[in-house]
């Protein structure tokens, strides 16, 4: 049950978009509900990490290697999850709905809203754990 892990870090899968296909920003946006325990936790403690596997990288695709294989690159972003301010909501909506059309079919009564990650640290990991730090500006 949830109460047994309350306060403990744990992972979850959320749909993410950094902008419409023709206007990527590098800023991860999320369309979430406070009814999700992950979101409820993030509203109390906004520190989070997001790991993105190399789904389309040359090495793993050419060699037909599982994206979770340690030879495949992954990018980990860490930072603060914040509610998208009103002036950015329309962009966040375009970002999420353009990349994940299934959202249109989600139940309307779940108090959906937008979060984004204010990225503080970026790590690029490849080849059995080699880690490179990337500046947020890059």
Helix amount, in percent? 10-25%
Structural class by SSE content? alpha+beta
> CATH topology, anyone?
Pnp Oxidase, Chain A
Which architecture would the CATH scheme give at its second level? Roll
List keywords for this structure.
Pnp Oxidase, Chain A; 3 helices; 138 residues; 5 strands; signal; CREG_beta-barrel; five-stranded antiparallel sheet
Provide a brief overview of the structure:
The chain is an alpha+beta fold and 138 residues long.
What would you note in describing this structure?
- This protein is of the alpha+beta class and about 140 residues long.
- It has a single domain, classed as Electron Transport, Fmn-binding Protein, Chain A (Pnp Oxidase, Chain A, Roll), CATH 2.30.110.
- Helix content is about 15%, strand content about 30%.
- The chain has helices spanning about 35-45, 60, 90-100; strands at about 30, 45-55, 75-85, 115-125, 130-135.
- Strands 1, 2, 3, 4 and 5 form a five-stranded antiparallel sheet that branches.
- Strand 4 and strand 5 form a beta hairpin.
- It is globular, with a radius of gyration of 16 Å.
- The mean pLDDT is about 85.
- One of its GO terms (cellular component) is extracellular space.
């Amino acid at each position: 049950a949830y109460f047994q892990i309350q306060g403990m870090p744990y992972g979850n899968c959320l749909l993410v978009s950094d902008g419409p296909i023709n206007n990527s920003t590098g800023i991860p946006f999320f369309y979430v509900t406070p009814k999700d325990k992950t979101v409820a936790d993030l509203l109390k403690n906004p520190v989070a990490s997001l790991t993105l596997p190399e789904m389309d990288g040359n090495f793993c695709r050419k060699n037909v290697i599982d994206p979770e294989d340690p030879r495949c690159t992954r990018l980990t972003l860490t930072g603060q999850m914040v509610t998208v301010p009103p002036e950015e909501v329309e962009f966040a909506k375009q970002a999420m709905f353009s990349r994940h059309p299934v959202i249109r079919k989600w139940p309307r009564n779940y108090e959906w809203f937008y979060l984004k990650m204010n990225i503080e640290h970026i790590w690029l990991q490849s080849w059995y754990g080699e880690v490179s730090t990337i500046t947020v500006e890059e």
